[in-house]
Amino acid sequence: MPALKPTEYEAEIVWLGSLESEDRNALMAEVRDALDLTFDGIAGECHAGLTRLSCSRVTSQYQRGTPIRNERQLSIVSAEELEQIAGAMGLDTLDPARLGSTMVLRGIPDFTHLPPSSRLQAPSGATVVVDMENRPCIFPAKSIEGAHPGHGKAFKAAAKGLRGVTAWVAAEGRVALGDRMRLHIPDQRAWAP
After folding, report:
1. pLDDT (tens digit, 9 = 90+) per residue, 91-100?
2. How far is CA 10 from CA 48, 59, 180, 192, in A?
3. What's the number of domains the chain is made of?
4. Count of other CB atoms within 10 angstroms of residue 36
5. From CA 182, how far away is CA 17, in angstroms rounded?
6. Helix H segments across the chain?
7. Region 10-36 average pLDDT
8. From its phi and psi, is residue 69 left (phi > 0), alpha (psi between -120 and 50) or beta?
9. How many CB atoms lie within 10 A of CB 159?
10. How far apart, in whole angstroms, are the C-alpha atoms of residue 139 and residue 67?
């Protein structure tokens, strides 16, 4: 039996973006119709590369600034969860570009809590590996505040458990709006120490 099994869940790509600026205070992804995913991520994107310098998220494993594998090439969010976040913030909608998102998918329930090492595979064969939940941070809040004064501070609390996942490219290929990505999950029981 394979270590990864396809599920009946598919998600439609409803939004694509590329975050090219490293200025986190001006967080705003550029909207795209398609993206070419490579082993380095997305060419020209600020999160591209096979490696990255470790950040505050992994200080219990590495001294800050240590070169490590880049498991944060992509930021993928759920359309359904974005709607929940917007509602909790008192907004009609929330622009994924203001979150520095790479991809918005519609159709997979409880998306933020996909098992780490799950795969999302596009018709082109492009495949991304889910690293883990992408915890809310202050940078999207600043961008949201610029567009919706008085609402940015609510982002971290509203997005808790709904912020989507980080991912890296396992197989190269093109993804485009309207593509359907099949979810594959690890064929193993939950950890039970």
Report:
1. 999 999 999 8
2. 26, 35, 6, 28
3. 1
4. 14
5. 20
6. 79-89, 138-147, 155-159
7. 88
8. beta
9. 27
10. 23
Q: Which residue has the tokens 């709006």?
A: 177
CATH number for the domain harbouring residue 83:
2.40.33.20
Helix then strand count (H, E) for the chain reads 3, 12
Look at 144 and 173; give whichever has higher pLDDT. Answer: 173
**CA angle centred on 95, ends 94 and 100, rounded to 5°:** 120
DSSP label at 189?
A: P
Reading the block at residue 84, the tokens are 């929940």
The identity of residue 106, as a single letter, is R
In a domain, 191, yes or no: no
Looking up tokens 């918005």 gives 104
What is the C-alpha separation between 80 and 190, in angstroms, rounded? 25
Q: Please tell me the distance from the alpha carbon of residue 41 to that of residue 71, in angstroms, as a whole number.
A: 10
> What gap in Å lies between CA 173 and CA 37, rounded to an integer?
5
- Given this model, what pLDDT does residue 167 score? 97
Full residue range of the structural domain in which residue 131 is found: 4-186
**What are the tens digits of pLDDT across the range 169-189?**
999 999 999 999 999 999 988
Q: What is the pLDDT of residues 52-77, one digit of tens each?
A: 999 888 889 999 999 999 999 999 99
